[in-house]
Amino acid sequence: MTRPPPRSTRTSPRKGMVLAVFAGLPGVGKSTLAQQVGAVLPAAVLAVDTVDETLQAYDVTEPRPGHAAYGVVAALAETQLTMGHSVIIDAVSPVKAARQLWTELAERLGVPLRVVEVVCGDDAEHRRRVEARYAQRTHDGIPDWVRVVERQSEYEPYLGPRLVVDTSLAVDAVGAVADYLR
User: Fold this and answer.
1) Which one, out of 9, 15, 18, 156, has a CA that is 20 to 30 A from the CA of 121?
2) What is the pTM of this model?
3) Residue 29 class from Cβ within 10 Å (0-12 exposed, 13-18 middle, 19+ buried)?
């Protein structure tokens, strides 16, 4: 991903401040978990889908769909982190290039990066969630089950430290995730 030049210089992070990335396929429960954890920490929750939907609503087109939304969220995250706020990024982040964006931001600002990989280990439940969201879609960007399966084949495995949360098993993951981010 081509990125604009850094807008700020390294700052002294506030104690307990973190850049957290909630990553995983559409429909696994990233957004729900991110919002719940963001309320507990507290942390600003910045969702790539929200930015992408807004760009679509204003007829902003781009040669690489979704690319601009990642850049906008990274810029907003930088602003929040520079102000001393923890940030949770809610994004599929399926490939190394997308993930590198978050790594570089954390390194540039001197804040810890924590990855929460959200999965839904029950394929039937995952499909039910995706199909329910698709049926209630409010914009063209919500993928159907076929597209989610296609994206699964494009999804590069995460390497390195992370917390994996299976939302089909976790009864109360919020506390454990908040502890991991602190």
Assistant:
1) 18
2) 0.89
3) buried
